[in-house]
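Quick one, tokens below:
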């Protein structure tokens, strides 16, 4: 399974971005797909997750109300819509897949990881 995260870029505070996570070699089914982010010198932190088959979602408090995770079954893609971006959202964003339909914030529960896409928010 290879995950490809894309959609990062340089934006100003208050702007929006949409990240995409696409899988090759796998069709999402009984999976949880999560987004995490990491800033240099800090540990990777949970952002949001979705259960593919039930469309249940989970968010970190820091992004609740600003970020939305969603899926496109036809395209086999998970999106992270990020609105009202803040300087502190600057990070490399990773998507990951958990094989057991478990909606979780725990990094260690995820089985496959993408390479990350950089989001830079200027203040």
């Amino acid at each position: 399974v290879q995950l490809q995260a894309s959609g990062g870029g340089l934006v100003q505070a208050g702007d929006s971005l949409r990240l995409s996570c696409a899988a090759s070699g796998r069709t999402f089914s009984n999976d949880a797909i999560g987004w995490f982010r990491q800033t240099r010198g800090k540990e990777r932190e949970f952002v949001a997750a979705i259960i593919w088959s039930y469309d249940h979602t989970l968010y970190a408090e820091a992004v609740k109300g600003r970020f939305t995770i969603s899926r496109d079954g036809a395209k086999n893609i998970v999106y992270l819509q990020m609105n009202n971006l803040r300087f502190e959202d600057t990070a490399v964003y990773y998507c990951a897949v958990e094989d057991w339909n478990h909606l979780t914030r725990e990094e260690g529960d995820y089985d496959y990881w993408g390479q990350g896409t950089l989001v830079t928010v200027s203040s």
